[in-house]
Amino acid sequence: MEISRTVVTLKRKRRLIEDTIVNYEKKIEEARADLAHVVAVIKVFQASAEPGELPRYADLHRVFKRTETVDLCKEALAKKGPQTTMQLAVYVMEARGLDATDKVMRQAVGYKIVQALRMQHLRGKIADAGKAKGGQRIWALP
Hints:
The protein is mainly α. The chain folds into two domains: 5-47; 60-140, Arc Repressor Mutant, subunit A. The chain is built from four helices and three strands. A three-stranded antiparallel beta sheet has the order 1-3-2. α2 (68-80) packs across α3 and α3 (85-96) crosses α4. The chain is rod-shaped. The chain starts with a helix and ends with a strand. 18% of the residues are buried. The mean pLDDT is 81.
């Protein structure tokens, strides 16, 4: 039995349409990936302004105003006396509305505090009260 020319043409057209659909699906997947990247970048930039929604990789320099970290540390030292870096980090995070239970963020804030308070120590505005049992620096007001 012979296949009519119409059927052969229609089958060829079907293959062409199927190939076109596959190509469009690939382009849709690429567009979805591009969209996901754009959404992620938007989250990073918006999170920098909203401390409560910070991802772990956010830039902490945008979270704190200039001298805010030192001011909050001095406030904590005035209220509670000498404290370790991590105690100060918890105080600063709570005062700023950040999640103090986030270990990664707390460690990043701790590093920021160490850098800021070392400079204050060199200027004579913060005292170094030694080290705690775990090796953490203890800070105090002069």
